[in-house]
Predict the structure.
Amino acid sequence: MTQAPLRLRLDTAALVANWTLLSRLSGRAACGAAVKANGYGLGARGVVERLAAAGCRDFFVATWAEARALADLGVPISVLHGARAEDMADRPGNVRPVLASPEQVARWQAASGGACDVMVDTGMNRLGVAPQAVADGLLDGLMVETLMSHLVAADEDVALNARQRDSFAALAGRSPARRMSLANSAGIALGPDYHFDLTRPGIALYGGRQRDAHDAIRQVATPEAQILQRRLVHMGETIGYNATYTAPHDMEVAILNLGYADGYLRCFSNKGCARVGDAVLPVVGRVSMDLTAICVDAAPDLQEGDWVAMDYALPETAALSGLSQYELLTGLGARFDRVWS
């Protein structure tokens, strides 16, 4: 296989340590893993294999296509987007839909679909059936494994968190569900009242930090790019499109095989940086579709073909770029080789 000039360096130990921490914070509740959007961009198969080996037993994807791609791993998988009519023909035995509307409930019942999960809308106004419908018996006769809801603003200290928790808790014992699940990554940090029977972390597994309880979360993914060319730029010359950077002195510049088509977006122009050892190598000029320039004055030995690591710690990079931690990961493109340590 030809090696790509881009790679995503993935830290198995950090991923497992993050899940272990979130599992401990979940107390008596089981701790699952959201692996939708191709494992938040890291590669869902690699994530599932490593977390299953660590003890994770509940995995969540968005679509049936994502579920089918992982079904051969034999782990329990829940499809958060429910069951459309188009999804009913090919349903692997270890995959459950998270039914989210009365129409989906009726469709699943008519097909004698077996075990399922159900989403209840407690305030998101996105997917989910009404709490009152559950209380009125909408789910009677279903084999419901997990009744779940989703917090709107668990990363903020707002009254809505407690209102959602109380609305969801009021459904205990009023459905055939074996388990209840509410907390995402930030919700886990809200405390035991939010844990119920199962937690569903996502971004924190992959290095995202949203609350103080996440301080020990470790970075999992580091983009690395190969140098295509090293060049001397003279004082007064400009670099890149629209001449947004003018060299203040004669400077050494390396051109990387990395750009906004890979998810390294234009917002990093003249802001981002790369590293080699202790040397900090700032981005100079505008990030273009496939290329980025960095100043390598601090790394005189770097040559064409060498690799540099881009600064990409999620909270810090989110603050720098104005992007969410979720966007930073899921936006990383298909041209990266995913390389697990």
Remarks:
- The first strand starts at residue 6 and ends at 10.
- The mean pLDDT is 97.
